[in-house]
Amino acid sequence: MSITSVQILGQLVAMSSDNGIRVIKYSEQFSYPIAHIFFSIDHVSQTLLFNGHLLFITNFTDQNNSPFRLYYFDPLLDFENASKIGSK
Q1: Burial class (CB in 10 A: 0-12, 13-18, 19+), 86
Q2: Residue 31 and residue 55: Cα distance in Å, rounded?
């Protein structure tokens, strides 16, 4: 897995790779990860996180898919359902 882009926005870090997009939430005071969400999407070349949305660009185009895709991401709701780091 090679990381293709990283963006830091407040407590959130969005990383894209050939395997998908990982969004990590860090604590405010101690800067350690408290939760993460992984979106399994192939061939992601760029990820942008803004106003509760993820815009991602893929490396391929076909008849059914555009290389530019927008996904609605609500950090508060999505992280409530996310897997907590270190918990079972």
Answers
A1: exposed
A2: 25
Buried b (16+ CB within 10 A) or exposed e, 62-75: eeeeeeeeeeebeb
- Residue 55, classified by CB atoms within 10 Å of its CB into exposed (0-12), middle (13-18) or buried (19+), is middle
6, 14 in Cβ contact below 8 A?
A: yes
pTM (two decimals): 0.70
Q: Which residue has the tokens 């350690």?
A: 32
Mean pLDDT, the chain cut into blocks of 10 residues (88 residues total): 84 86 85 84 82 76 69 66 52
Topology classification of domain 3-84: Thrombin, subunit H (2.40.10)
* All residues at 6 or more sequence positions from 85 whose CB lies less than 8 Å from its CB, including other chains: 33, 34, 35, 36
What is the predicted pLDDT for the residue at 51? 72
